[in-house]
Amino acid sequence: MKSVGYKYPGGHQAVSDLSLKLGPGILGLLGPNGAGKSTLMRILATLARPTAGQVTWNGVDIAEQPNALRVALGYLPQDFGVYSALSAREFLAFLAAVKGLSGVEAKTRVETCLAQVGLSDAADRRLGDFSGGMRQRVGIAQALLNDPTLLIVDEPTVGLDPEERMRFRHLLTDLAGQRLVILSTHIVSDVEASATQLAVMAEGRLRFHGTPEQLLGMA
Ligand code: ADP
Ligand code: ADP
User: Fold this and answer.
1) Where is the ABC transporter domain (predicted)?
2) What value of ipTM does the predicted structure carry?
3) How far is the CA of 84 from the centre of ligand 2 (A)?
């Protein structure tokens, strides 16, 4: 991201002059409500076009070629909804088809993703009977269907109890590997142990970027 800015049509400047270079690992994106985290994540997910600056992915400008990033992208938005009447397996099979996967490949990806989020045993239960934490894991499973190298997760722990939140932290750590996982939260404990890097936003601006140790050293 080079000098990225975003101004809403109404005139609100939600992101200002933000530059960041990222690689594999977990980036914890911290900041209070209204800091601009969701806006920035929508830009990175190619759902919003920056009104200033540039985002490049492996050297490609994503404003010009969004598909270069989309094929490598998994995204769990803040307002992700599930179809209550479907089982987890049915829902993921549906989304796999929507994403253009079919046949044995689709089946294999669905089972792999269910296993990755620890839902294989619950795969035939109705999503309407799932806990909030389980639903969020379904959200992660759908984001993993295309085996993305960039996984963007917007405030996934809102409304989860402490145990579910801990489980979620471990899951994201397992998923990081060679991926870049970007996790936004306003809860520091969600990311202080698991993130390899932290970015702190306030009023649309980047106030800090570095390791958790560096941030704690500043405190
Ligand atoms: P959060 O702070 O948890 O990210 P918000 O309350 O800021 O959530 O936003 C919730 C939804 O409302 C988002 O989809 C956002 O785009 C929209 N929204 C937030 N603020 C405004 C606004 N001033 N005008 C129009 N839509 C807004
Ligand atoms: P965060 O995710 O950190 O809570 P957001 O990116 O949702 O922050 O919002 C950043 C700022 O942009 C807030 O002041 C919010 O009210 C505003 N905003 C968000 N969505 C919209 C929108 N659709 N229209 C106008 N303003 C918005």
Assistant:
1) 1-219
2) 0.69
3) 29
